[in-house]
UniProtKB/TrEMBL annotation:
The lineage of its organism: Bacteria, Pseudomonadati, Planctomycetota, Planctomycetia, Pirellulales. It comes from Novipirellula artificiosorum. It comes from the Bacteria. The chain crosses the membrane at residues 20-45, 66-88, 94-116. This is DUF1772 domain-containing protein. Keywords: Membrane, Transmembrane, Transmembrane helix.
Length: 168
């Protein structure tokens, strides 16, 4: 008796995601990028401002503001836009309060940026000032804490989505 071995080649099915889950993934990536970046800024980048030297600080600060905008602007806008879209398109398993808490933290970040950090940077464009630098470093903990909490919330939302989709 001979046995036949049948080998079937199958094409993996295309990955399809509901729009709400795609939004959550985009939001997660942008948020976690910003969490990593804000910790680097808080612990390394801002504290090193006082080592630049008075003679070159203004040029340094101008260059800093231009370059940092290139790496924080797009992910901050993606994070904000995807967060707002999640309010109207919540994934299955995610409670509205989770999304609203994340949006609330995002508001804290944006308000802190506009009301505290940007004015500090603008003042530093006139030259290094120890008090302004100290305020920048100290006040940036607001954004560091809020982004870290947001990162936790977005990961938690993903866990809820995965739990809902697997029935766990």
């Amino acid at each position: 008796m001979s046995e036949e071995i049948v080998i079937r080649q199958t094409t993996p099915p295309g990955i399809t995601l509901p729009f709400s889950i795609l939004l959550l993934i985009i939001n997660l990536v942008a948020t976690l990028y910003m969490v990593g970046l804000i910790w680097m800024v808080q612990i390394v980048h801002y504290p090193l401002f006082n080592g630049v030297g008075e003679g070159s600080f203004i040029a340094y600060q101008k260059r800093h503001q231009f370059l940092i905008t290139l790496i924080v602007g797009p992910p901050m806008l993606i994070e904000a836009f995807s967060s707002l879209l999640l309010v109207w398109n919540p994934p299955t398993g995610v409670n509205n309060w989770m999304i609203l808490a994340g949006v609330g933290l995002l508001l804290v970040i944006w308000i802190s940026t506009a009301a505290i950090q940007v004015p500090c940077h603008n003042k530093l464009l006139r030259g290094f000032d120890q008090a302004t630098h100290h305020r920048l470093v100290r006040s940036n903990w607001i954004r560091t804490a809020a982004w870290t909490a947001r990162g936790g919330f977005v990961v938690w939302m993903l866990v809820h989505v995965l739990s809902a989709s697997t029935g766990v």
